[in-house]
TrEMBL record, chain A:
It comes from Catellatospora bangladeshensis. It holds the Pfam family BPD_transp_2. InterPro entries: ABC_transp_permease, BCAA_transport_permease. Keywords: Amino-acid transport, Cell inner membrane, Cell membrane, Membrane, Transmembrane, Transmembrane helix, Transport. CDD domains: TM_PBP1_LivH_like. One of its GO terms (cellular component) is plasma membrane. It is a multi-pass membrane protein. Its main location: membrane. This is Branched-chain amino acid ABC transporter permease. PANTHER family: BRANCHED-CHAIN AMINO ACID TRANSPORT SYSTEM PERMEASE PROTEIN LIVH, HIGH-AFFINITY BRANCHED-CHAIN AMINO ACID TRANSPORT SYSTEM PERMEASE PROTEIN LIVH. It is found in: Cell membrane.
UniProtKB/TrEMBL annotation, chain B:
Keywords: Cell membrane, Membrane, Transmembrane, Transmembrane helix. The chain crosses the membrane at residues 29-48, 68-88, 95-117, 129-149, 211-230, 260-283, 295-322, 342-358. The gene is livM_2. This is Branched-chain amino acid ABC transporter permease. The keyword Protein transport does not apply. InterPro entries: ABC_transp_permease, LivM-like.
From TrEMBL, chain C:
Pfam families: Peripla_BP_6. This is Branched chain amino acid ABC transporter substrate-binding protein. Residues 1-24 form the signal peptide. InterPro entries: Leu-bd, Peripla_BP_I. Residues 41-361 form the Leucine-binding protein domain. Gene3D superfamilies: 3.40.50.2300. Keywords: Signal. Belongs to the leucine-binding protein family.
């Protein structure tokens, strides 16, 4: 136990933890949306995130920017960033929907048991990961421009705040609020909530279940695409098996907050980011995953359905 | 819930199990004996290396005997996980953790290079293999109970993530290089099982066949045990928990106790397979215990047909064998493609296609199949 | 219906019995007679070609491939084939492949295994089959502890490299505050331990995980410690990410790391700007500045820059090929040939001569310091022996 290390670096650990947590939260939303509607762990979601990082990187490279040549000027940088964002969102959501169409829908048509979905999800995950792995020679890629500066902008309470951190945290919050509003206030969102609450009644009331499910995958893919670009901004790195670790963490975050609950996913993501950072300082970086899971198990002991409970259909979400 | 075949009195034999059960008793025994004999003979000459032509079932670029051994270990794991997932309906994503516990327990107790002897001096000398094996199994069973005690109150997917977390925790602990488990540096000089014929040890370094036969024998014993258990009161309690836990509790089944039983038995079998594996490989380190392996075992159980012992055997075999078989396929077909590179891609596609066309698994349990059919009728309204 | 199944099963069993019986009678393949010209020999390569560590293994395989291409061009009447054993760097997968290699009498020698863990897991099998191996890259010192006979190492081990890195930090960089990070791999921890031994006291130490992506907590500790030099024991992906994040967070020191980081991918991950000035040690010469026509030949065949140990793999593969050329067509002959070998590798310029335990002659083990300059690894200075 090294408390001095924790206290000395507390402000910095908090800001970097929140940034990391914001990315977890965005990926966690994909798990939570699908789980809320289908009661299904979408194991392939980690790969939906991973393909987004490659899509954004390749778009930037195609525009002529790489790790040694970053665009100059705020406007051009923003333009390049948005181009990458659009590409990542498009590819990620297309992948998510493709997974639904090829690996889940045929099983639903045949009323397969829940475990069968789990296995076809694992199969889909293998397929996507291997395709990218083969296409990229399984090499690590760091060929990304610095679109948002990571030089400190100002200092609050001893923590240096960088533009990257602001973009990620603010961007993630905007996405979350937007999603929350969409689910709660639009016609389509009502449909999602209706199916989450009671699929059969919703179908009887005229909600197109197939379309709602497709929508849920699409939304999850959009969130994963945004998360992918943020991860690129923060780490400037991707690899064919990058998704696995992020997916595992994001899924943990979703369960921590209460899977099926949008706000729970956000809370769980941010909490996990912080816990990991504090634990790294306190007991050493080699134990960060261990501590993350200990916290998860401890929380589930006292709140068996996560901190906020599961409720995509109910009023809170 | 309703098992039509039994109600009708004159069952129409369906599926492999149905046909097998419909045979006369001597016929059934003959069939099973023949199958078991085939398993024992598989790594031997003619089958593995027929003169004049190439047996297409033999793996091309990894040693067939060793692949059979690895497959047998996976079969044992699948049988164990089948008790947890298939019988009791508890989704366990971290089953490989028990394999790790068993393997490490065996290695620490028997290896002269174990840190328990060299650094901590808890033991004066390595334990004999036969004494260490039961202890390793008991340690794993206790781990199962210790993990199950707090977590089995959770249901469904929450249990899944907690078990996954448990396996990750074991892995993270195993990776710590300074600790007793040796991390990536691993534990070397793990002894082989005892026994010799004519001065030559039965379990040597090069020939994997004796190890395969040993695991095969263990599998047969375990299958008998598990099968009898599944047909006893315990097995019926598991089925009731799987179908409707609340109803089972109301009917007076102590669900927690039986869930813990399932968990402990599953852990024991996992530990047994880990211990057997460790005593073949001679050297092990933390890289073996990645999360992917837990997922592979689960895939094995469901691919074969959850709740069915023959299904678990088949699934466990396929999951270990198919990627190895694909490894050298390109060279065998004379194609200039490196199938080693594509084997997990193909395996992933196989998983998806299998689940689309046979979601109940290759060799499903009849009761379980009926449950699924039953469910299909209910859900069909919604789609 | 039931009879049908019984018949099928019974038939299969009878077949199996016949098969087993036949096997018992079948004698072993005759081993090829020594001295006579044997033209279907194979040279094995053992290492990760897929999976996470494939980046390292593929370069080594390519080095072996190049050596074989050249040999087969000159000896078109008597070619040697390459047999690949893709271990994915996983010791658990190694035994099946090692047994396969051991059982294939056409495989006369093996370049590899690439990593120390898989080497440890398969040495028993190689010894049992008397199959000579030369590893181009497994640097764990303990591999030569036992007198394996078949084991040879074409590079210096971590005991040569770690202290040299430490001396370089102390004597050349003259750093007072050094932060040491390792990735908990046997290789990384081994190097870090040796470095700490030489330095005596360090400003701080942390351990990270392989495949970790976010190093914020470690970076915070490094910054707070005031260290001017960061030693990293581990491989290039984590090293690149850690350095990139440390530089981005405003740390301005120098990173020193071992041969696991000495790879073009390190600069790809960290970026030219962040990687600039990084010092990399290696008990080898950089593959990209190998001697002779190696680099040009490699590029022509593979269409890529040679990576770490591609040159060593090329040279050790050529030792085997020289043996085959000299008519050593059995494993025993080949083993004797390698044990008595004394020749200079054309790519590395190292004189290959092995000690009894399989280690490279210590006078041949040179540790060099390289520096990252303008996006490339350039040799800087040979670190003097301590």
């Amino acid at each position: 136990m090294d408390f001095s290390e924790l206290f000395r670096n507390f402000p910095e650990l908090t800001t970097t933890g929140l940034t990391q947590g914001a990315i977890y939260a965005l990926v966690a939303l994909g798990y939570t949306l699908v789980y809320g509607v289908l009661r299904l762990i979408n194991f392939a979601h980690s790969e939906v995130f991973m393909v987004g990082t490659f899509a954004a990187m390749w778009t930037w490279n195609a525009l002529g920017f790489n790790q040694n040549l970053s665009p100059s000027g705020v406007l051009i940088s923003a333009g390049v960033l948005i181009a990458g964002l659009l590409a990542a969102v498009a590819v990620s959501s297309a992948t998510a929907v493709a997974v639904e169409l090829t690996a889940y829908r045929p099983l639903r048509k045949r009323n397969a048991p829940p475990l069968a979905f789990l296995i076809s999800a694992i199969g889909a995950s293998f397929v996507i990961m291997e395709i990218i792995g083969i296409a990229t020679d399984r090499a690590p890629y760091g060929n990304m421009p610095e679109l948002v500066s990571n030089k400190p902008l100002f200092t609050i309470l001893g923590a240096e705040i960088t533009p990257v951190q602001i973009v990620i945290v603010v961007g993630a919050l905007v996405m979350l609020v937007g999603l929350d509003w969409f689910i709660n206030n639009t016609r389509l969102g009502r449909g999602v909530r209706a199916v989450a609450q009671d699929p059969d009644s919703a179908a009887l009331m005229g909600v197109n279940k197939g379309r709602v499910i497709g929508l849920v995958f699409l939304l999850g893919g959009v969130m994963a695409g945004v998360a992918a670009v943020f991860a690129n901004l923060k780490y400037g790195f991707t690899k064919f098996n990058l998704g696995f670790l992020f997916g595992l963490k994001a899924f943990t975050a979703a369960v921590l907050g209460g899977i099926g609950n949008l706000r729970g996913a956000v809370l769980g993501g941010l909490l996990l980011g912080l816990v990991e950072n504090y634990a790294s300082a306190l007991v050493g970086t080699q134990f960060r995953d261990l501590v993350a899971f200990v916290v998860l198990i401890a929380v589930l002991m006292f709140r068996p359905t996560g901190i906020l409970g599961e409720s995509l259909g109910r009023a809170r979400a | 819930m309703t098992d039509v075949q039994i109600k009708n009195g004159a069952p129409e034999p369906r599926g492999f199990t149905g046909k097998l059960n419909a045979m006369s008793k001597p016929g059934r025994w003959a069939a099973i004996t023949a199958l078991v004999a085939l398993f024992y003979l598989m790594p031997l000459g003619w089958f593995a290396d027929p003169p004049g032509f190439y047996n297409p079932l033999v793996t091309f670029s990894s040693d067939f005997g060793t692949v059979l051994f690895d497959a047998a270990i996976f079969v044992l794991l699948a049988i164990g996980l089948n008790v947890v997932v298939g019988f009791a309906g508890l989704l366990d994503l971290g089953y490989f953790g028990f394999f790790a516990v068993g393997a490490y327990a065996m290695a620490l107790l028997t290896s002269p290079a174990s840190k328990l002897i060299t650094d901590y001096h808890w033991l004066d000398s390595p334990w004999p293999w036969l004494a260490a094996l039961p202890v390793a199994i008991v340690i794993t069973a206790l781990t199962g109970v210790l993990l199950g005690w707090p977590t089995l109150r959770l249901r469904g997917d929450y249990l899944a993530i907690v078990t996954l977390g448990f396996a990750e925790m074991i892995r993270v602990i195993a990776v710590q290089s300074e600790w007793v488990l040796g991390g990536d540096r691993g534990i070397s000089a793990i002894p082989h099982p005892p026994g010799e014929i004519g001065g030559e040890p039965i379990f040597g370094f090069v020939d994997p066949k004796p190890y395969y036969w040993l695991v095969l024998t263990v599998i047969i014993v375990v299958v008998f045990g598990v099968r009898n258990l599944a047909r006893s009161r315990v097995g019926r309690a598991w089925v009731s928990i799987r179908e409707d836990e609340d109803a089972a509790e109301l009917m007076g089944v102590p669900t927690f106790k039986f869930k813990l039983w399932a968990f402990a038995i599953g852990a024991t079998i996992g530990g047994l397979s880990g211990a057997l594996w460790a005593s073949k490989v001679n050297f092990m380190n933390s890289t073996t215990f990645s999360l992917e392996n837990s997922i592979l075992v689960l895939a094995a159980v469901i691919l074969g047909g959850a709740g069915s012992i023959p299904g678990a055997i088949l699934g466990g075999f396929l999951v270990a064998y198919v990627p190895e078989w694909l490894r050298g396929l390109g060279g065998f077909l004379g194609l200039d493609i490196n199938t080693t590179e594509y084997r997990y891609l193909i395996f992933g596609l196989v998983l998806i296609v299998m689940m689309i066309f046979r979601p109940q698994g290759i060799w499903p349990n009849r009761r379980r199949e009926a449950e699924i059919k039953d469910r299909q009728k209910e859900v069909a309204v919604g789609e | 219906m039931r009879q049908q199944l019984a018949r099928v099963l019974g038939g299969v069993a009878v077949l199996a019995l016949v098969a087993g019986g036949a096997a018992a009678c079948k004698s072993d393949d005759a081993t090829p007679g020594a001295g006579s010209k044997v033209c279907d020999l194979k040279l094995g390569f053992f290492g990760a070609l897929t999976g996470d560590a494939a980046g390292l293994g593929i370069h080594m395989r390519n080095g072996v491939k190049l050596a074989l291409e050249q040999y087969n061009k000159d000896n078109a009447d008597c070619k040697v084939a390459l047999e690949e054993y893709d271990s994915q760097g996983d010791p658990a997968k190694a035994p099946a492949l090692a047994t396969k290699a051991a059982g294939d009498t056409k495989v006369i020698g093996l370049v590899g295994p690439a990593f120390s863990g898989e080497t440890e897991a398969s040495l028993d099998t190689f010894k049992g089959a008397n199959l000579p191996i030369i590893t181009p890259s497994a640097t764990r010192p303990s591999l030569s502890d036992k007198d394996w006979g078949v084991f040879h190492r074409g590079v210096g081990n971590d005991l040569a490299q770690g202290p040299a890195a430490g001396r370089y930090i102390k004597d050349v960089l003259k750093a007072e505050k050094v932060y040491v990070v390792d990735d908990q791999s046997a290789y990384g921890t081994g190097l870090a331990t040796e470095v700490v031994k030489v330095l005596g006291t360090v400003a701080g130490q942390d351990k990270v995980q392989v495949k970790q992506v976010d190093f914020a907590a470690t970076v915070a500790k490094i910054k707070a410690s005031g260290a001017t030099v960061l030693f990293f024991g581990g491989y290039y992906t984590e090293a690149g990410l850690l350095l990139k994040q440390a530089k981005a967070a405003g740390w301005n020191g120098v990173m020193v790391a071992g041969d696991g980081v000495n790879d073009a991918n390190f600069i790809k991950v960290a970026g030219d700007a962040a990687a600039e000035g990084t010092v990399l040690t290696c008990p080898c010469a950089p593959a990209t500045s190998a001697k002779g026509s190696f680099v040009a030949d490699y590029k022509a065949l593979i269409n890529a820059e040679p990576g770490t140990y591609a040159d060593v793999s090329y040279d050790v593969a050529k030792i085997f090929l020289e043996g085959i050329k000299a008519g050593k067509t059995t494993r025993a002959d080949m083993l004797a040939f390698i044990d008595g070998y004394n020749g200079t590798g054309s790519a590395t310029g190292v004189t290959y001569k092995f000690e009894k335990n399989g280690e490279l002659d210590p006078t041949q083990v040179l540790v060099w310091a390289f520096e990252v300059k303008g996006g490339a690894v350039v040799p800087k200075v040979e670190i003097p022996k301590g």
